[in-house]
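[AMINO ACID CHAIN]
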Amino acid sequence: MIKKFILLSLVASQLMVSCSNDDSPTTDPTKELTLEEQIANLVKQPYSKLTPTEQKAKLEIEANDMLVQLDKSKSSSAIEAIENLSRLLGVSSIDIFDGKNDNEVEDILNVSGVYGVYTWDNAGKKWVKTASTTELKFVFPAKESQTANNAIFSSKSTSSDIKVKYNDSYIYGGNGTVEVNDYFFLPNTADATLTIDNKEAAVFTQTAKYANGKEVPTEFSYKMSLNDGYVWEMSGTKASANTSKATLTYNGKNLISFNAGSSAEIDKLIDNDELVQYRGKANGLFQLMDNFVIVADMDLATEAADKEALYKNNTRPAYLDYKDPKSDYKAYYTALNAYEKKISEGNAANANKNMKLILVSKKDGTKIADLVQHSEKDGEYTFKLPVWNAQYNMWDWNDTGESFTQPYLYEAYYLKFNDNTEVEMSAYFSTGFEKLQTKFDDFIAAFNKQ
């Protein structure tokens, strides 16, 4: 990003020299400006006085500070430990209460009344459970490169009266499905602590209130505080107009904040004169550092209906019978690729239709760009198709079949500038923003369920 930033500045410098401001001090026209002076002059200009090319250059300059702060989080020891815990839960599945297998990190805070101490056995690549009636705890290496268990993630909670039935289904040799019913209580409060080398590295708190016996809370809040200085918070309230918000701060300084709700609620946040033109038109506001806001007009009900229709109208290919010699696995995975491409493209189109987002300068109220989504490929997975084993009358995954590739698809945010050019948003604001945006979108979707 830093190299790209310098190159962009050098290219844009030819345009910057001609920029002028009535408040700017008079400079000697015969004196050649340094790169730093050219950048400083550009930053002084309001977006409204700049061409789209110059706006892009200024945007990169001002967004660079946010990028630096987000990139620092990648070296957070607490985040690295949580990521390694998530990875280990993927390597060896656990069952924090009988029947609910393959638990993830998020599940630990979302159940109550379950206990046990899980210790990572690096030699056996598995979790070893020790019974407990008082705590839910995980002992594991803080880093993927480590073998010693130097991190502890422990959780405690208080139960609500919301009892949830969970169904697991197991198929035994084609003889039918055996259903196992599990029950657990949703928590009113949940707290967790992460320690690394016996020092507190992170604290997690969560509260929820429920009404009418429904599993979706009427009020919810979540906070993650890292010893590195980062704090991530999310909360929501169900009322006549649902509201949701989230913030990421670093040492008390706002990096990103998200707010979604009614236009009246958002109007309370648009308190500077430069943004008054957006009052009454937005039901979402995302603030990036002190320089930018993303104003949102979101039709969440239609977005949810369109998403439901997308999945209803596009049927995922049915998995094949591994004992049928006529099963065509190449055709199946080809159809699966086509299905996933259609779903990803449909999700992007749905967002562009129902989630109108614009990037605005907080300082002068100028619209810089629209935010749009496109389906993108993020790597791929290549494997060998199975071959028919006549001896055992079954398809055999013996790594001798034809190679086949599946792409990993996701919906990327792009900035669409006034000259109709588009640049992926992560080029300016890092993939960290997109990940947090996705978490907030998922939270809004979950919180708006009936």
Remarks:
- The chain has a mean pLDDT of 75.
- Residues 246 and 439 are 10 Å apart (CA to CA).
- Residues 329-354 form the longest helix (26 residues).
- The chain is about 30% helix and 35% strand.
